[in-house]
Design brief:
about 450 residues; mainly alpha; about 5% strand
Length: about 450
C-alpha cells in the first residue's frame, strides 16, 4: 500500500511540474489584443461607431487623389501623420499571413473578429488607392511639411499631397506588394465575405499585370519625391506578389512567374523592403535559402547579439527586424525545417520584447513598459487643448497610452532611454507591429 501511495504522489508531482513547465511565459493572447488596438489608434479617416480608442477621432477627411478620388482611411505610418502605401501594403500582407497560419490563436484569445476588422481596414484603403488598372496611389501627405509640425491628426493643417504610379511612371515593387496584400486578403475573406474577397482578387490580378508589364522601382521613378521608404528594386516584390497570387488562384502561370523571377540567396532580413526570405518560406523546396538566411541570424553568425540575447541587425528599429525574423522562423519550423531550433530562437526574440530583460518594449503591457513613445497623437492632450512642439519636449509621460505599440528597441549594448525625442529607439510604426503580432500569434 505504501508503494502505491508513493507512486501516486510521484506521478502527481510529475504531472504538476509538467503543467507548470507548459504554462506560457507571457499572456500572448493579451498581447495580440493590445497590438490590434495599436492599429486602431493609427486609423485615419472616418472612424466607425465601434472605435475603441477614445482619444482618437475622425481625421484627414479630405484626403483625395489628383482627380478627386477618395483616399480617406488607412493607417498613419508611425509617430507622424503620413500614409505610405508601399510599407502599409506589406503590413497588411504580414498580418494576413499570420491570421491565415495562426487563426486558432486569434479565435482562442477572443480576438478573431477584431483581427478581421483590422486587416479589412487596411485592405479597404489599398483598394481605394487602385484607381485604374495601371494607376496606383502610394502616398498621401508631405513628409517635409509633416515633420515640421507636432500636432494630432484631427487638427493637422499640413499638406496632404497624393503621389501615384502609372504606366508612364512605373513601380513594380509597390504594385506587387499591393497585389500580395490583396491576394492574401482574398484568402482571409473568401469564406467570410465572398464579395469582398472577389473584389480583392480582381485588384490583385490587375496589379500583378501592371507590375509585370510596366517594370521599374517606384522610388527611382519618383526620385525627387521620396526620401523615406525607398525601395532597393522590384526583384523581390515581383516573385512575392506572384507567389501570393498562385496561392490564391492555383493558376500555374503565377507559379511559373514566381519561380522564374525568384533570384534566391541569403536575405538581409524580412522587412517592408526585403521579401526574399518571405518568398522562399512560402515554398519549402527552397529549404537551402531558408536555412541560409536563418543561419545568419543565429548566435555566432553575422547578426550581432546584445548581452541578453536580442539579435540586432541595426540599431534603428532593432525589435522590428528581430520580430519579423521570429515570424519567419516559426513558419519554417511549422513546415518541419529545424523545428526545435527555430522555434526556440523565435520565442527568445519575442520574449525579449515582452520583458525578459526586466522591462517590456510594448506600450501598456508587462513590466516597466514605454510611456514616452515618439507619437504625435498619443503625446497630445485632450482635443480641446492645442498641441504643438511644446508637448514634444515635455518630460511627463504621454497623456494617452498607445496600447500595444512595439517601440524600436535597444541597440547592441542594450542602452535604451524612454524618451519621446528618440525616433530611432522609441518611435512606433505599423510595420514594427506586423511581424511581431504574427509571431506572437505563432507562440500562442
Amino acid at each position: 500500500m505504501m508503494f502505491i501511495i508513493r507512486s501516486s504522489v510521484c506521478l502527481l508531482s510529475i504531472l504538476f511540474l509538467s503543467l507548470v513547465q507548459a504554462a506560457p511565459k507571457y499572456d500572448y493572447g493579451d498581447v495580440l489584443g493590445k497590438s490590434i488596438l495599436f492599429y486602431e489608434a493609427q486609423r485615419s479617416g472616418k472612424l466607425p461607431a465601434t472605435n475603441r480608442v477614445h482619444w482618437r477621432a475622425d481625421s484627414a477627411l479630405n484626403d483625395k487623389g489628383l482627380n478627386g478620388e477618395d483616399l480617406t482611411g488607412g493607417w498613419y505610418d508611425a509617430g507622424d501623420n503620413i500614409k505610405f502605401g508601399y510599407p502599409m501594403a506589406n503590413v497588411v500582407t504580414m498580418l494576413n499571413w499570420g491570421l491565415l497560419r495562426y487563426k486558432d490563436a486569434y479565435q482562442d484569445s477572443g480576438q478573431l473578429d477584431h483581427m478581421y476588422d483590422c486587416v479589412r481596414w487596411g485592405l479597404t484603403w489599398l483598394v481605394k488607392c487602385h484607381t485604374a488598372p495601371n494607376e496606383l496611389y502610394i502616398m498621401v501627405g508631405d513628409p517635409t511639411d509633416d515633420h515640421r509640425h507636432w500636432n494630432r491628426p484631427e487638427n493637422m493643417t499640413t499638406k496632404r499631397t497624393p503621389k501615384k504610379i502609372d504606366a508612364a511612371h512605373p513601380g513594380s515593387d509597390a504594385a506587387s506588394e499591393y497585389a500580395a496584400a490583396m491576394a492574401s486578403g482574398y484568402l482571409v475573406f473568401k469564406t467570410k465575405d465572398p464579395d469582398f474577397a472577389a473584389e480583392l482578387l480582381q485588384h490583385a490580378k490587375q496589379l500583378s499585370s501592371f507590375a509585370k508589364n510596366h517594370r521599374g522601382s517606384y522610388s527611382k521613378t519618383l526620385t525627387s519625391d521620396f526620401n523615406l521608404y525607398n525601395s532597393a528594386d522590384e526583384s523581390d516584390e515581383m516573385p512575392w506578389g506572384m507567389a501570393w497570387l498562385y496561392k490564391a488562384t492555383n493558376e500555374s502561370s503565377y507559379l511559373q512567374d514566381a519561380k522564374s523571377m525568384y533570384q534566391g540567396g541569403t536575405a538581409w532580413a524580412q522587412s517592408w523592403d526585403n521579401k526574399l526570405l518571405g518568398t522562399s518560406v512560402r515554398d519549402d523546396t527552397y529549404k537551402t535559402d531558408i536555412e541560409s538566411s536563418m543561419t545568419e541570424w543565429l548566435p555566432g553568425r553575422s547578426v550581432p547579439y546584445s548581452p541578453h540575447g536580442l539579435a540586432v541587425r541595426t540599431k534603428w528599429g532593432s525589435l522590428r527586424y528581430a520580430s519579423n525574423m521570429a515570424f519567419m522562423a516559426l513558419l519554417a519550423a511549422d513546415d518541419g525545417i529545424q523545428t526545435d531550433k527555430y522555434r526556440k530562437w523565435a520565442m527568445s526574440q519575442i520574449n525579449y520584447a515582452l520583458g525578459d530583460t526586466g522591462r517590456s518594449y510594448v506600450v501598456g503591457f508587462g513590466t516597466n513598459p514605454p510611456t514616452h513613445p515618439h507619437h504625435r497623437a498619443a503625446s497630445c492632450p485632450d482635443m480641446q487643448t492645442p498641441c504643438d512642439f511644446s508637448w514634444y519636449s515635455k518630460p511627463s509621460p504621454n497623456p494617452h497610452v498607445l496600447t500595444g505599440a512595439l517601440v524600436g528597441g535597444p541597440g547592441l549594448n542594450e542602452a535604451y532611454t524612454d524618451r519621446r525625442s528618440d525616433y530611432i529607439q522609441n518611435e512606433v510604426a505599423v510595420d514594427y507591429n506586423a511581424g511581431f503580432q504574427s509571431a506572437v500569434a505563432g507562440t500562442y
